[in-house]
Amino acid sequence: MANNERLTKRVKKMEEWIAENEGGPTLNSFVYLVDALRGTTDRLQECERMFQHQRNLMGQYFTERDTMEDWNSWLAEQEENKNAVQEQETEEVSVQEEADSSEEAIEAQEKE
């Protein structure tokens, strides 16, 4: 019951605010933001629906063509390649204690 009363108070405050700002720039901005959020939510839901549909079609295709084993082996190869790249060691570089002056750097390059 307390939640209902609290929500009723919030709605009344919002109604008062809307009445005070009828057609003002703040209310117009608020309406725009709510509409933008609603549109973004609708697009996200549509993308999720399309993704799920595509996923179902791919599963059906792989099952009907008996290519699921090929797909799984290809995925396993990709995972192995990814792990192999991550396991490579980095090359060590020597650390200089002080920065060379420009003259010392030029002399060192000439000696090489």
Write a structural description.
This protein is mainly α and 112 residues long. The protein has a domain at 23-68. It is built from 4 helices and no strands. It has helices at 2-20, 25-64, 68-87, 102-111. The chain is flat, with a radius of gyration of 32 Å. The mean pLDDT is 82.
Query: What's the overall geometry?
Result: flat
Pick out the low-confidence regions.
none
Q: In angstroms, what separates the terminal alpha carbons?
A: 86 Å
Radius of gyration of CA atoms, rounded to a whole number: 32 Å
Count of DSSP H/I helices: 4
The share of residues in extended strands comes to: under 5%
**SSE ordering:** HHHH
Total strands: the figure is 0
Q: Sheet with the most strands? A: none
The class by helix and strand makeup works out as mainly alpha
Q: In which range does the helix fraction lie?
A: over 70%
Overall average residue pLDDT = 82
Key traits:
single chain; 112 residues; mainly alpha; 79% helix; flat
Provide the fold topology.
Blueprint: H1 2-20, H2 25-64, H3 68-87, H4 102-111
Task: Provide a quick synopsis of the model.
The chain has 112 residues and is mostly helical. The protein has 4 helices and no strands.
